């Protein structure tokens, strides 16, 4: 359907949307284990990523960006392309991703985009920098009922060795999570704090 859309309406946002869909689909085989457990992006086997979909999605992103009339889908697709092009997690260009989130915030700002940017800042500048941004979002009362905000906070606290704060945030995320694979993932993270 996305391909038909860009045939009928070759606008930058349609190109960006299809690029985003293809780039997300390219990682589907690596997102969960054979037993159905979630696999974080940084732990995914990149050999399972579909390079054909990455190439096609990246070309669409480049076409959308070259128009200079980009919107939220094209920017999100550009973020996905940066992830997809990194041969290993350590090679991810986090500075570029933070810059793209800055552009996305101006085009379509929301607390969730701000949260995603905070995680990217944590990867670029260290967990303390990202944690400060997440705490500011939560202190404003935004995303208090959003499980991923608490899960991200928990992970950054864990990386900083702040185990009691990590535990409290993992427990809050777990209380807000309904999907079983996510619940099992959070339970494993919580159990790991006791080891």
Helix content: 55-70%
| Sheet of most strands | none
C-alpha geometry = globular
Kindly estimate the percentage of residues that lie in beta strands according to DSSP. Answer: under 5%
Q: Taking Cα atoms only, what radius of gyration do you get, to the nearest Å?
A: 18 Å
Q: Work out the number of β strands.
A: 0
Q: Structural class, from secondary structure content? A: mainly alpha
| Low-pLDDT runs | none
Mean pLDDT across the residues is 93
In DSSP terms (H or I, runs of 4 or more residues), the helix count works out at 10
The end-to-end distance, rounded to whole angstroms, is 48 Å
Q: H/E series, N to C?
A: HHHHHHHHHH
Report what the structure shows.
With 195 residues, this protein is an all-alpha fold. Helices cover 69% and strands 0% of the residues. It contains ten helices and no strands. Helix 1 packs antiparallel against helix 2 (12-26), helix 2 runs parallel beside helix 4 and helix 5 (94-108) packs antiparallel against helix 6. The radius of gyration is 18 Å and the shape is globular. The chain starts with a helix and ends with a helix. The model has no long low-confidence stretch (mean pLDDT 93).
List the helices and strands and how they pair.
Elements lengths: L1 H7 L3 H15 L24 H16 L5 H14 L8 H15 L2 H15 L1 H13 L7 H13 L3 H14 L3 H13 L3
Helix pairs in contact: 1-2, 2-3, 2-4, 3-4, 4-5, 5-6, 6-7, 7-8, 8-9, 9-10
What would you say about this model in short?
The protein has 195 residues and is mainly alpha-helical. Helix content is 69%, strand content 0%.
Keywords:
195 residues, single chain, mainly alpha
């Amino acid at each position: 359907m996305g391909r038909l859309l860009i045939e009928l309406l070759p606008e930058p946002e349609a190109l960006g949307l299809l690029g985003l869909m293809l780039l997300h689909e390219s990682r589907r085989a690596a997102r969960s284990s054979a037993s159905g457990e979630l696999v974080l992006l940084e732990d995914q086997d990149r050999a399972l990523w579909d390079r054909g979909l990455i190439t096609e999605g990246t070309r669409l992103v480049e076409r959308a960006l070259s128009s200079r009339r980009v919107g939220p889908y094209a920017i999100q697709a550009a973020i996905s392309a940066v992830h997809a092009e990194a041969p290993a997690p350590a090679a991810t260009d986090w500075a570029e991703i933070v810059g793209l989130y800055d552009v996305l915030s101006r085009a379509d700002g929301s607390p969730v985009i701000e949260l995603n940017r905070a995680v990217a800042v944590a990867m670029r500048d260290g967990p303390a920098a990202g944690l400060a941004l997440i705490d500011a979002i939560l202190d404003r009362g935004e995303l208090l009922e959003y499980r991923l905000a608490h899960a991200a906070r928990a992970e950054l606290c864990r990386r900083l060795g702040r185990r009691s704060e990590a535990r409290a945030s993992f427990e809050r995320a777990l209380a807000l999570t309904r999907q079983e694979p996510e619940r099992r993932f959070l339970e494993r993270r919580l159990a790991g704090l006791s080891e």
